[in-house]
């Protein structure tokens, strides 16, 4: 009896491996359109940041940076018109532009800059001194 159980179990596993029995019954997908961008030029390539906060659109001669949740154009970066492909490295927040015809690659490091309105607030030192804020997010 015990040997027969092992034979049935082995036959069932073999059927799963060879597609005799499908483990997936069926599924459906619901979808909703969230937003749409109307660009002045045709996009050559599009990449989103890993957190979904940024959308990078490469068009001939420029790189468009959008804040994805607000659907707002933040920056237009001029680039050489030869670049036609785009990739994003989330580790160091770098965009990689490449050219299939010109055999060139360009790296653009992105740095998030916030401006704060401090008019009327007390301060010490120069009024227009640059400030760097360091965020230590790895503490638990």
Q: What this model shows, in words?
A:
This protein has 140 residues and is an alpha+beta fold. The protein contains one helix and seven strands, in the order αβββββββ. β5 and β6 form a beta hairpin.
Question: What would a concise description of this structure say?
Answer:
Helices cover 11% and strands 29% of the residues.
Arrangement of strands in the largest sheet: 1-2-3-4
How many distinct beta strands? 7
User: What is the H/E order?
Assistant: HEEEEEEE
What would you report as the Rg, rounded to the nearest angstrom? 26 Å
Structural class from helices and strands? alpha+beta
- Find the CATH topology of one domain: Thrombin, subunit H
* Proportion of residues in helical segments: 10-25%
Please indicate the percent range of residues in DSSP E strands (runs of 2 or more).
25-35%
How far apart are the termini?
Answer: 55 Å
Instruction: Please identify, by name, the CATH architecture of one domain.
Output: Beta Barrel
What's the level 1 CATH class of one domain?
Mainly Beta
What summary fits the major beta sheet?
Answer: 4 strands, antiparallel
Uncertain segments are none
Described by the principal axes of the CA atoms, the overall outline is extended
Arithmetic mean of pLDDT: 81
- Number of helices, counting only DSSP H or I runs of 4 residues or more: 1
Secondary structure layout plus pairing:
Blueprint: H1 2-17, E1 45-48, E2 54-59, E3 62-67, E4 72-78, E5 85-89, E6 94-99, E7 104-109
Antiparallel strand pairs: 1-2, 2-3, 3-4, 5-6, 6-7
């Amino acid at each position: 009896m015990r040997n027969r159980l092992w034979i049935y179990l082995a036959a069932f596993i073999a059927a799963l491996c060879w597609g005799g029995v499908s483990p997936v019954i069926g599924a459906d997908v619901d979808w909703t359109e969230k937003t749409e961008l109307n660009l002045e030029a045709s996009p050559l390539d599009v990449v989103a940041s890993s957190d979904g906060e940024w959308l990078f659109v490469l068009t001939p001669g420029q790189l468009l940076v959008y804040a994805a949740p607000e659907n707002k154009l933040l920056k237009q970066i001029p680039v050489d018109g030869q670049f036609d492909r785009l990739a994003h490295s989330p580790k160091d927040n770098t965009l990689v532009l490449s050219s299939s015809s010109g055999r060139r690659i360009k790296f653009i490091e992105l740095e998030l800059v916030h401006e704060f309105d401090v008019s009327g607030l007390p301060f010490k030192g120069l009024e227009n001194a640059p400030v760097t804020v360091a965020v230590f997010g790895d503490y638990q």
